[in-house]
Amino acid sequence: MTLKACKKEEKMDRGFQKKFKFEGSINVLTQMMVDPAATEKRSGAKNLPLRPGEILDVIQFTNQEQILCRNSQRRYGYVPRAVMLPL
């Protein structure tokens, strides 16, 4: 990884921590897959756009209804638990 790419990732991580009021280091708890049959596409400022069959990194289990996740493009957002499948 180049220095420029590393700095870009650090900037994105700081932006995530500020937007979601997340304190501490960002650790991936597990990976989960978006249900291939899922049709729910919730949009919003803090919701992560979903693609069926996509593998997401779980950052935090926030509550009974949603999970804080990161996709392969290092974008962060909330995802409904109902559309997630364990790997």
UniProtKB/TrEMBL annotation:
Identify one Pfam family in the record: hSH3
Domain Helically-extended SH3 spans what residues? 16-85
Q: Which terms are listed as keywords in the entry?
A: Phosphoprotein
Q: Which organism is it from?
A: Loxia leucoptera (White-winged crossbill)
Give the Gene3D superfamilies listed for this entry: SH3 Domains
The processes (GO biological process) annotated in the record are:
integrin-mediated signaling pathway; protein localization to plasma membrane; T cell receptor signaling pathway
Q: Gene encoding this chain? A: Pram1
Q: Does the keyword Protein transport apply?
A: no
What is the protein named?
PRAM protein
This protein's record includes keyword Heme: no
Give the matching InterPro entries: FYB1/2-like, hSH3, SH3-like_dom_sf
Any one annotated GO CC term: plasma membrane
